[in-house]
């Protein structure tokens, strides 16, 4: 999507784009030309490096990276009014910068597109995203590969900060004992938690208490 036409979609409230190259100037054109846009879903799109969201109406943002190709060295997101954020990010040779996420209520985060979830890049980003963005949301969902990295960090000494979250959903197969330790660590530092959901849990053969 490389159009030079000025976008003026004054009544558009939802935008879904899949598997498409969207150049940076087009993203900027969309954000400025859709004043009442409420939901933006970019699934396996590429070609842009920055989402500077200034609209007070855009409350839901979903960005899922491609799994079979490099996405560029940087993705920067500024979203001061977004309330629901869903990101699946490929950290291989790529940096994510999240800022101005003060309005976030619900967030889902995962890693995708690479075979080694515990690379140094993934560990660094996992801590950064958790401490700066995910720590403060009321409803948190952790995808399978992100949770693997978070669990490894907890097992090897990283102390999770205390969170005020009330709802926690974890997507995991629980085939690794470190995943169980990760669940316990999240519970320990979530004193206000009211609801816990573990999706994909397979209890057979898993020992919770050693």
Automatic annotation (TrEMBL):
Instruction: Report the domain of life of the source organism.
Output: Eukaryota
- According to the entry, every stretch annotated as the At1g61320/AtMIF1 LRR domain falls at 9-112
Indicate the transmembrane segments per the record.
Answer: none
The UniProt entry, under InterPro entries, shows: F-box_SCFL_complex_component, LRR_At1g61320_AtMIF1, LRR_dom_sf
Spell out the Pfam families in the cross-references. LRR_At1g61320_AtMIF1
Q: Note the PANTHER family from the entry.
A: OS06G0556300 PROTEIN, OS11G0201299 PROTEIN
- Any idea what this protein is called? At1g61320/AtMIF1 LRR domain-containing protein
In which organism is this protein found?
Castilleja foliolosa
């Amino acid at each position: 999507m490389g159009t030079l036409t000025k976008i003026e979609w004054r009544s558009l409230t939802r935008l879904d784009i899949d598997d498409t190259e969207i150049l940076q100037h087009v993203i900027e054109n969309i954000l400025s030309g859709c004043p009442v846009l409420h939901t933006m879903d970019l699934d396996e799109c590429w070609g842009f490096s920055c989402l500077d969201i200034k609209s007070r109406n855009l409350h839901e943002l979903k960005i899922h990276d491609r799994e079979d190709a490099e996405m560029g060295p940087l993705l920067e997101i500024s979203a001061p009014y977004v309330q629901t954020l869903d990101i699946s990010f490929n950290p291989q040779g790529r940096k994510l910068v999240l800022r101005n996420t003060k309005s976030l209520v619900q967030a889902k985060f995962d890693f995708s597109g690479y075979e080694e979830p515990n690379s140094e890049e993934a560990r660094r980003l996992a801590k950064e995203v958790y401490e700066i963005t995910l720590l403060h949301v009321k409803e948190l969902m952790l995808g399978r590969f992100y949770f693997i990295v978070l669990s490894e960090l907890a097992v090897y000494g990283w102390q999770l900060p205390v969170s005020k979250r009330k709802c926690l959903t974890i997507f995991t197969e629980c085939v690794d004992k470190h995943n169980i330790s990760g669940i316990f660590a999240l519970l320990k530092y979530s004193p206000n938690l009211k609801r816990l959901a573990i999706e994909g849990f397979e209890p057979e053969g898993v020992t919770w208490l050693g």
